[in-house]
Each structure stands twice: as C-alpha cells, then as structure tokens.
C-alpha cells in the first residue's frame, strides 16, 4: 500500500473521530427530538469546535500542511463566490421581510454556532479528507468520495431530531451544496473562501428558520422535501460542476500552489 493510500485511510479514520466527537457532544447537550434550528439557536454547541480542535492536533502530528490553509490563488478567484452569495442574500432578505426580527441573543448564538460548523465541516471534508483523497485517487473518484461522505454524515442528524426522512433530505442537500463547496475549494486553492460561504449559507438558513413565529407547520412529505431541495440547492451543484468543467482547471487540482486559469477567460477545449 502506497503512502498516499495510507494517508487516505488515516484521514478517513480522523473524519470518523470527528463525527464521533461532533455527534457525541451534541447528544450530551440536548434531548432526543430536538430540531436543528433549536439546537443552534438555544445554546453554544461544543461538538464542532471540539472536533475541529481534534483534527488540528492530528494534522500537526501527521505534518499535513496541504489542507488549504494558504492564500487564495489567484486573488481574483474570490469573485467565484458570487453565485452562492446570491442565495445567501435571498435567504437573509426572506428572513427580514417575511418573519419577525430575530432576538439579538438568538442571532448571536446562531452566528457563533454556524461559524463553528462552517470551519469544522470544511476542515474535515474539504481540508483533511480532500487533501488525502486527491493524492490517492483519480480526480472524479476523489471528488465524488468527498462529496458523498459529506452528505451521508448528515443522516446522523436523525439521532438528534428523530426525523429520519428529513435527515435523508438534509444529506441530499449536503451532497448538492458540498459539490459546489469542493469546486470552490479546487478553484481558489484555499479553505477560507469555502469556510466563509459555508458559514453564511448556514447562518442565513437558520436565521430564516429562527424567525418563524406561531405554531410549527406540519412537515412536508419526503418527496416534497426532496423536490424542494432539488429546486433550491440543485443550482448550487450545477454551478460547482460548471467551475470544474475545464480540463485545465482539473489538471492543477492536486497542488494548492498551482494558479487556476482566470474564471472569465475561455480555456483551450471550450
């Protein structure tokens, strides 16, 4: 077994430990049947930062320095976040115009929790796991492995909420958005833009949910939830695949020091 394959196995094990810490601490903090919007709005959730700290220790011990903690290259690739930011702006606008103002204490709590989640999940999947998978597997194999695993861990939310159908939809949502997050990671050669987008995406969604008043609406049927996810988050996945459509972009995927082609400049083969 080669060095890259061994690193991939260690990285998968590290992510398993990350999942155990994230979910274990969450289960200790809240009772079964707690919804995700209640979880992130009522208290600081310690699972994500604790799990991220564990990964940072593992990275230090294993001397992994290629997980994405570097400058965005080229700097102009920051503009690639424009499309997900359209969705984020729309979610915030809906929260402002459709619901009552969110209390400041809840707003602060949700902001902190979603920031922790954005940092922790990106470090685990687009950092540690991608850093190993891209060295051990062909491009598409690594891409779909990371995207699939990122989605499938969201099924474990059912351990908290008790809603297995909804957790399945959340996993599907995560695969769609995760493909866009990974494409941004590849194009920017850095974790910071993806962490910011992930944080603001989650923040806008949970602010929208936290602003609802009155009795809770009955949950939609699983098929309706699935179609809703496809309509809302599907364009994010399409945008992600658009970002990595070009062979020249994919040629530099294994090295964060490689400069990506300019986003607006036509590339050979297009």
TrEMBL record:
GO terms for biological process: CAAX-box protein maturation; proteolysis. Keywords: Hydrolase, Membrane, Metalloprotease, Protease, Transmembrane, Transmembrane helix. InterPro entries: CAAX_protease, Rce1/LyrA-like_dom. GO terms for molecular function: endopeptidase activity; metallopeptidase activity. Pfam families: Rce1-like. Residues 106-203 form the CAAX prenyl protease 2/Lysostaphin resistance protein A-like domain. It comes from the Bacteria. The chain crosses the membrane at residues 7-31, 43-61, 81-100, 106-125, 137-156, 162-184, 191-211, 226-244. This is CPBP family intramembrane metalloprotease. It comes from Sphingorhabdus lacus. The lineage of its organism: Bacteria, Pseudomonadati, Pseudomonadota, Alphaproteobacteria, Sphingomonadales.
């Amino acid at each position: 077994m080669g060095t890259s394959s061994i690193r991939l196995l260690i990285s998968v094990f590290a992510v398993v430990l990350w999942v155990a810490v994230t979910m274990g601490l969450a289960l200790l903090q809240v009772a079964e049947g707690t919804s995700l919007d209640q979880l992130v709005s009522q208290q600081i959730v310690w699972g994500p930062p604790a799990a991220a700290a564990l990964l940072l220790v593992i990275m230090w011990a294993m001397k992994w320095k290629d997980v994405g903690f570097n400058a965005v290259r080229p700097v102009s690739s920051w503009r690639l976040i424009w499309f997900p930011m359209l969705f984020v702006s729309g979610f915030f606008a809906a929260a402002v115009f459709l619901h009552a103002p969110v209390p400041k204490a809840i707003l602060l709590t949700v902001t902190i929790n979603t920031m922790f989640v954005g940092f922790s999940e990106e470090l685990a999947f687009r950092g540690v796991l991608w850093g190993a998978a891209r060295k051990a597997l062909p491009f598409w194999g690594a891409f779909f492995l990371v995207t699939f695993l990122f989605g499938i861990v969201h099924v474990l939310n059912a351990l908290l909420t008790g809603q297995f159908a909804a957790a399945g939809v959340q996993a599907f949502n995560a695969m769609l958005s995760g493909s866009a997050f990974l494409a941004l990671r590849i194009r920017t050669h850095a974790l910071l833009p993806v962490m910011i987008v992930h944080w603001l995406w989650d923040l806008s969604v949970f602010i929208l949910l936290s602003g609802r008043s009155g009795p809770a609406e009955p949950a939609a049927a699983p098929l309706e939830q699935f179609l809703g996810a496809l309509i809302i988050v599907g364009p994010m996945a399409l945008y992600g695949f658009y970002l990595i459509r070009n062979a020249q972009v994919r040629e530099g995927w294994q090295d964060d020091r490689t400069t990506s082609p300019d986003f607006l400049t036509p590339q050979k083969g297009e």
